[in-house]
Amino acid sequence: MKKLMAANWKMYKTRAEAKATAEDFINRIDGKLPADREVLIAAPYTALESVGSVLEGKPDSYLCAENLYPAEEGAFTGEISPAMLKDVGCSYSLAGHSERRHIMGETDQMVGDKVAFGLKNGLSMILCIGETIEQRKAGEVQKIIDQQLEAGLKNIPADFAPETVVVAYEPVWAIGTGEVAGEEEIVEAHGFVRKMLKNIFPEKANEIRILYGGSVKPANCAQIIALDNVDGVLVGGASLDGESFSQIALA
Ligand code: PEP
């Protein structure tokens, strides 16, 4: 199973900025990416084509959307379908990033609809889950992981290929705060995610990648990806710069 080193650019970068960063990143990892790694960039819709033009043909490099709408087409002003994302070169999409859950009010059910619809329409899906600080303090980490996983994977096709489903554990209190989760917290949460996956998909759970996200940087990435059940990282702030994200991808 290859480790997935994923960037999430959120609502940053014009087309030209995105292209320049992607080129800088790709040049820095060219010929150096270990055989057991893949890289992925999730970019704003408007920058997907320019980032895709840089990633196209590069080994183990994937283009990802940050969101999708679970319908083929229709009267959904402002939304984007999986077919449109594939048309622009995406092979992946995120679903349920904490900023979408907490700022846009996406429910567990909505996130599950996105994961299922994306998979059914040929995208690989990265389901983001994670607890808030209040939920952690209330001892609800496992309850939240359980709920978000259960709802997030509820209606996916029974014959899904395990490499097309990725879970990103991102404690909300560690996203964009500089406060990375401790090693014990990461190992405990990822172990629990693996256990829940085994309950839901006994045959495939070991091949589903579990990424950690939350203030990953060049300085802490090597330790994090060496932990049990950590199959890659999802990186926000530190992925916006080609040099810093290349150090993470090669860590
Ligand atoms: C993210 O956006 O998914 C994320 C983990 O952000 P950051 O790395 O900035 O904490």
UniProtKB/TrEMBL annotation:
It catalyses: D-glyceraldehyde 3-phosphate = dihydroxyacetone phosphate. PROSITE patterns: TIM_1, TIM_2. CDD domains: TIM. Gene3D superfamilies: Aldolase class I. The active site is at residues 97, 170. Homodimer. Belongs to the triosephosphate isomerase family. This is Triosephosphate isomerase.
